[in-house]
Hints:
Elements lengths: L1 H9 L13 H16 L1
Helix pairs in contact: 1-2
Amino acid sequence: xxxxxxxxxxxxxxxxxxxxxxxxxxxxxxSKKAISNESD
Length: 40
């Protein structure tokens, strides 16, 4: 999970998400980050 979070923060393409119980959470994190970036 830490690797995925780092990829999201650094804007890199995500690696393997198959080990996550709910891979949709990564999409939600990316959306929240995009909203946060818009308000900066």
